[in-house]
């Protein structure tokens, strides 16, 4: 029942939010309910797997069931979702939104959708939650976004809609090829497909997931959307929602189409590695902090995409670990960027500089987060990237070495960002009384502690997803 | 009797505590307290290191592994967070904490003009650096070494850019980090290769004399070993500033001078040498790599020395001199003189730290003037600095019985044995070294004072906390060579070689195969050449200091062979331009153009289709008929995706 609670609680909380007209109350409500979800999630970590499954009839005429269950990967990602939302709400607590009730309502609905995606074991149910997570996100971008929000949301919508459509076609095609005409995960593993069918349907699913991650060349919605969305939404999109794509590949694509996954591995890995270098190079030329971090994120996700297809337990562990690490780190970066934007009114490097003098604590926290972003040892992402690079290298040395160039480029653009924002002399936009809200500082300190703690002692997180990895590797073999 | 070795984790722990206290309390603590904590923790580490050293020296000491916990454990491999105590690591512990402590003490006076919170930041960074450096040498496997390896790079970055308001300093810091990262990538790829081929990165499992994985393969020059050693060497090239990645080190002089002494002379930049000595068993199996190491080292030694001849910034001369001396160490490694390289690391740590601290004392006295053309005649006003600096110059020039003579001689003798040409270039470089060092010495301390009246007025010897470290380092620079007296003088006097035997094995190195007459001759030539260069430089630059802008070759040298400009034109600018092309060409016009094109096409067709609703019954009937035909075709033939699947079955 805990699993159901994880999904239903934010869902109900979100629906209720729409009716709380008072701004202060709705903010408090969103924060309290997300903390409650976090408590449920932490509670679920202590439970044995047997207690974390739930099954009930749902759409019986389609033979789809409400089957939800949590394995190691599910636990980790529901935890990430549950941790992210209170952090996002707390760090943006002082931000003002028009119609706050709807804003927080949509945010919590997105959380419910994400929880559902990470728990569902029935493919149609998964698709339902996938859309439940996305649709509120469209509203959040289009209503609360920046100047170009309409055009950008349209692009975001087209991209993900095309992906969803391809996936829906794929779902229907595999549905008819299951032995018992169902959507259950266990039946989907016994598909009766010819070679050509498997390859074809593989791509339908993969493109849907690749758009979500995003993987080169399906990524151009992402920098625009990150730039135009309100920062709280950007945090959800980049911290948690991109993991839907990675998760979906691991949960569904690899086990359902094991042969096609092996056959397509090289093409996808090459695409992913090209994307890593490509996005890193473009990041060097950005003048907007949000866009720089967006491209940096594409590069990091590219490494995950490459490692997923190495068919190697080490790489898979790295992907698991990095999903959590990347979520925490990028949310940390967005928090600082949001503070800077709120206080100075700009995100352009050309208009910033010397902030370390005004806000030394913020500078330190940002520098720690940035170095976590470039995977410095003893930060969490070193562990993930180490495992992933190791698997790509053992798959193909040349590919591993080329992918490795991105760690040099990451240093180039990340240090450039630190320098342009915090170092040097102050200029017009930054020579102001700079006030970092206490709640933001506190949240950042918590994030920094998480970053260092899992960077020094990563084993518990690695062990958490051990079961998923060994099962998956056995399924593909 | 391994009490201290069991407590080895205390050695890095103390500086870590110092980092946390100074970092978090930098606004609350007073400057004297910050200085005391910052230096005190290093002294505590030094005391423990001393205990460890004496334990390791005892006969019958066996390598100790102290495991704290499993850092990363996956199916394929386990990487423990473990420390290794043996001769090599204990020696480096002493150098790092010993020289480190002196430099911390020196810093308390040198940095005294800073505001308390920045003073605290400085000591926090410095403690963090020592912590990382200790991890680097203590790690029992390559991953822990890599943690320290990137950690020292981070601290170097933070300290070069310590005065962060100055953007030139920030550029220098960034350049250092990025160039180091190029090397780090090599290191990391080598680690992956080892994990892939051997399944472990622990030194003992790889190199143990009885059952080590690498020890048991006797394949010379196998691709894996050559590949791994070359990639590791790439790491060393970055960290230890060798050709082609050396250009960050001279720029790193933007940091405070004690930082240059500690990080960019005595410790961090020697990490590459430590790493190769640690991997000596692997390198000995890869003669190809060894040749490359020797050639790169010697080329760097020579090339950097030519640049040092024409530099006028007191710290820049010392920086190029460091690059050059590091080149010697790599030459030593490349010809198999591992002990010689470690020996030179040690003596270099003494005299180069002394030179930098002396330079710091001069800069302090001259109110941040670094140009030697504006100095001169400081001999009388800075007596302690002058004498200690002179001793260090003699040591680096290889004049007996100063420490540099013994270590350099050992490397050169081994080079002679390997290939006479290596020796010839090495000895020419010895001459150049003596020349530029005494050019620096004479222009700084001899002749007449050339600075402003105001500066002359304020010239003063530095306070005790700065001069005492100078004196201690001067003593070490003079006598430090005695731990490695070559066989030719007295048999069995090379204490360092005996000490390092458990790690390096009993090898004939340092000219053991040469007969005594040859060895005396080699020494004589290099000492003679150095002496001539010293006398020449002393006379020339004390009487007419070189104040004019150089022409011809001199201009080329003073502009560092235009290497920075070359890198900028050949690498940096094209990369930026390519990135710009990707950004505006491929991303905007290409991919986004395509996506937006589809969007426009849909809108366009929407507009066109709308026109069909014209209200004329005839066209509606025509459309209806066409649709029915299409539907019939689809029902009979279209419900068959086989041609599509056929196409996809070709995707193998």
Can you walk me through this structure?
The complex is a heterodimer of chains A (477) and B (652). Chain A has 477 residues and is mainly alpha-helical. Helices cover 76% and strands 3% of the residues of chain A. Chain A has 20 helices and two strands. Chain A has helices spanning 2-17, 23-46, 72-91, 100-119, 123-144, 149-177, 185-188, 195-212, 221-228, 231-256, 258-284, 289-308, 313-344, 355-358, 360-373, 380-395, 397-422, 438-456, 459-464, 466-476, and strands spanning 53-59, 64-69. A two-stranded antiparallel sheet of chain A has the order 1-2. In chain A, α9 (221-228) packs across α12 (289-308). By secondary structure, chain B is mainly α. In chain B, 72% of the residues lie in helices and 3% in strands. In chain B, strands 1-2 form a two-stranded antiparallel ribbon. In chain B, β1 and β2 form a beta hairpin. Classes of the chains: A mainly alpha (477), B mainly alpha (652). At the A-B interface, α6, α8, α11, α13 and α16 of A face β1, α6, α7, α26 and α28 of B.
Set out the fold topology.
The complex is a heterodimer of chains A (477) and B (652).
Chain A: H1 2-17, H2 23-46, E1 53-59, E2 64-69, H3 72-91, H4 100-119, H5 123-144, H6 149-177, H7 185-188, H8 195-212, H9 221-228, H10 231-256, H11 258-284, H12 289-308, H13 313-344, H14 355-358, H15 360-373, H16 380-395, H17 397-422, H18 438-456, H19 459-464, H20 466-476
Antiparallel strand pairs in A: 1-2
Chain B: H1 3-6, H2 10-24, H3 31-57, E1 64-73, E2 78-85, H4 87-110, H5 116-138, H6 142-160, H7 167-198, H8 203-207, H9 213-216, H10 223-239, H11 248-251, H12 257-266, H13 271-278, H14 280-284, H15 287-309, H16 314-334, H17 338-365, H18 383-397, H19 403-418, H20 420-445, H21 453-458, H22 464-479, H23 495-504, H24 516-543, H25 553-558, H26 563-612, H27 617-638, H28 642-648
Antiparallel strand pairs in B: 1-2
């Amino acid at each position: 029942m805990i699993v159901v609670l994880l999904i239903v609680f934010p869902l109900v909380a979100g629906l209720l939010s729409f009716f709380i007209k008072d701004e202060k109350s709705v903010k408090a409500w969103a924060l309290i309910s997300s903390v409650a979800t976090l408590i449920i999630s932490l509670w679920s970590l202590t439970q044995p797997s047997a207690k974390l499954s739930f099954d009930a009839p749902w759409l019986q005429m389609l033979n789809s069931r409400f089957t939800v269950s949590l394995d190691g990967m599910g636990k980790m990602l529901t935890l990430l979702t549950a941790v992210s939302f209170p952090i996002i709400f707390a760090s943006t607590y002082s931000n003002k939104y028009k119609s706050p009730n709807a804003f927080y309502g949509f945010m919590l609905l997105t959380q419910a959708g994400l929880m559902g995606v990470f728990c569902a074991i029935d493919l149609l149910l998964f698709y339902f939650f996938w859309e439940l997570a996305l649709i509120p996100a469209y509203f959040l971008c289009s209503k609360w976004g920046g100047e170009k929000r309409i055009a950008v949301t349209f692009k975001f919508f087209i991209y993900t809609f095309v992906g969803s459509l391809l996936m829906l076609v794929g779902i229907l095609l595999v549905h008819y090829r299951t032995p018992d005409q169902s959507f259950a995960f266990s039946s989907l593993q016994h598909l009766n497909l010819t070679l050509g069918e498997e390859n074809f349907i593989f791509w339908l699913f993969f493109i849907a997931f690749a758009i979500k991650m995003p993987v080169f060349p399906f990524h151009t919605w992402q920098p625009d959307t990150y730039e135009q969305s309100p920062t709280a939404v950007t945090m959800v999109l980049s911290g948690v929602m991109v993991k839907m794509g990675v998760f979906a590949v691991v949960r569904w694509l690899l086990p359902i189409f094991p042969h096609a996954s092996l056959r397509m591995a090289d093409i996808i890995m090459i695409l992913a590695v090209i994307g890593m270098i490509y996005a890193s190079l473009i990041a060097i030329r950005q003048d907007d902090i949000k866009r720089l971090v967006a491209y940096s994120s594409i590069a990091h996700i590219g490494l995950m995409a490459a490692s997923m297809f190495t068919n190697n337990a080490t790489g898979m562990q790295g992907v698991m670990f990095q999903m959590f690490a990347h979520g925490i780190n990028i949310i940390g970066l967005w928090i600082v960027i949001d503070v800077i934007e709120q206080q100075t009114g700009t995100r352009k490097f050309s208009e910033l500089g010397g902030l370390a003098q005004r806000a030394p604590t913020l500078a330190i926290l940002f520098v720690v987060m940035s170095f976590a972003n470039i995977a410095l040892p003893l930060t969490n992402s070193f562990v993930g990237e180490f495992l992933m690079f190791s698997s790509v290298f053992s798959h193909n040395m040349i590919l591993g070495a080329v992918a490795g160039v991105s760690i040099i480029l990451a240093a180039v653009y990340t240090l450039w960002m630190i320098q342009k924002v915090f170092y040097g002399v102050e200029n017009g936009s930054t020579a102001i009384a700079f006030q970092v809200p206490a709640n933001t500082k506190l949240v950042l300190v918590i994030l920094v502690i998480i970053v260092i703690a899992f960077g020094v002692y990563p084993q518990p997180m690695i062990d958490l997803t051990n079961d998923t990895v060994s099962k998956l590797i056995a399924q593909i073999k | 009797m391994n009490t201290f070795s069991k407590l080895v984790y205390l050695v890095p722990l103390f500086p870590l505590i110092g980092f946390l206290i100074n970092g978090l309390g930098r606004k609350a603590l007073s400057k004297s307290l910050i200085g005391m904590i910052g230096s005190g923790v290093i002294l505590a580490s030094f005391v423990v290191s001393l205990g460890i050293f004496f334990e390791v020296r005892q006969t019958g000491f066996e390598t100790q592994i102290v495991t704290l916990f499993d850092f990363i454990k996956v199916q394929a491999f386990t990487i423990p967070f473990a420390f290794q105590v043996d001769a090599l690591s204990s020696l480096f512990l002493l150098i790092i904490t010993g020289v480190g402590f002196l430099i911390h003490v020196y810093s308390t006076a040198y940095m005294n003009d800073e505001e308390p919170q920045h003073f605290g930041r400085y000591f926090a960074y410095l403690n963090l650096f020592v912590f990382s450096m200790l991890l680097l040498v203590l790690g029992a496997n390559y991953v822990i070494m890599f943690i320290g390896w990137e950690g020292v790079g981070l601290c170097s970055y933070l300290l070069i850019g310590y005065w962060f308001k100055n953007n030139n300093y920030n550029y220098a810091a960034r350049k250092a980090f990025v160039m180091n990262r190029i090397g780090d990538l090599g290191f990391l790829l080598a680690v992956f290769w080892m994990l892939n081929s051997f399944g472990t990165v622990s030194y003992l499992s790889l190199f143990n004399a009885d059952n080590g994985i690498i020890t048991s393969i006797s394949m010379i020059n196998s691709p894996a070993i050559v590949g791994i050693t070359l990639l590791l060497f790439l790491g060393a090239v970055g960290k230890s500033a060798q050709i082609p990645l050396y250009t960050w080190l001279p720029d790193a002089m933007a940091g405070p001078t004690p930082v240059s002494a500690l990080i960019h002379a005595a410790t961090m930049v020697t990490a590459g040498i430590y790493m190769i000595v640690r991997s000596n068993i692997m390198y000995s199996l890869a003669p190809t790599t060894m040749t490359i190491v020797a050639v790169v080292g010697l080329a760097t030694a020579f090339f950097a020395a030519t640049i040092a001849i024409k530099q006028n910034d007191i710290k820049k001369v010392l920086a190029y001199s460091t690059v050059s001396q590091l080149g010697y160490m790599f030459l030593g490694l490349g010809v198999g003189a591992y002990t010689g390289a470690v020996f030179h690391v040690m003596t270099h740590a003494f005299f180069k730290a002394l030179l930098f601290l002396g330079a710091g004392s001069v800069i302090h006295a001259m109110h941040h003037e670094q140009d030697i053309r504006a100095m001169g005649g400081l001999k009388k006003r800075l007596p302690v600095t002058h004498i200690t600096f002179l001793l260090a110059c003699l040591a680096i020039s290889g004049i007996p019985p100063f420490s540099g003579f013994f270590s350099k001689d050992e490397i050169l003798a081994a080079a002679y044995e390997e290939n006479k040409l290596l020796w010839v270039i090495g000895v020419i470089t010895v001459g150049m070294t003596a020349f530029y060092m005494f050019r620096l010495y004479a222009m700084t301390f001899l002749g007449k004072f050339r600075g402003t009246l105001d500066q002359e007025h304020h010239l003063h010897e530095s306070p005790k906390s700065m001069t005492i470290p100078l004196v201690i380092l001067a003593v070490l620079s003079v006598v430090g060579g005695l731990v490695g007296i070559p066989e030719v003088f007295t048999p069995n006097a090379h204490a360092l070689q005996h000490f390092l035997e458990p790690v390096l094995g009993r090898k004939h190195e340092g000219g053991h195969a040469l007969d005594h007459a040859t060895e005396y001759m080699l020494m004589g030539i290099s000492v003679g050449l150095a002496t001539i260069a010293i006398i020449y430089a002393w006379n020339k630059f004390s009487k007419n200091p070189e104040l004019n802008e150089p022409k011809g070759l001199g201009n080329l040298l003073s502009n560092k062979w235009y290497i920075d400009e070359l890198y900028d034109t050949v690498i940096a600018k094209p990369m930026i331009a390519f990135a710009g092309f990707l950004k505006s060409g491929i991303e905007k016009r290409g991919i986004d153009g395509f996506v937006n094109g589809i969007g426009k096409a849909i809108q366009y067709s929407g507009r066109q289709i709308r026109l069909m609703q014209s209200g004329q019954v005839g066209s509606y009937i025509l459309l209806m008929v066409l649709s029915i035909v299409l539907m019939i075709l689809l029902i009979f033939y279209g419900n068959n995706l086989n041609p599509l699947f056929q196409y996809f079955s070709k995707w193998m």
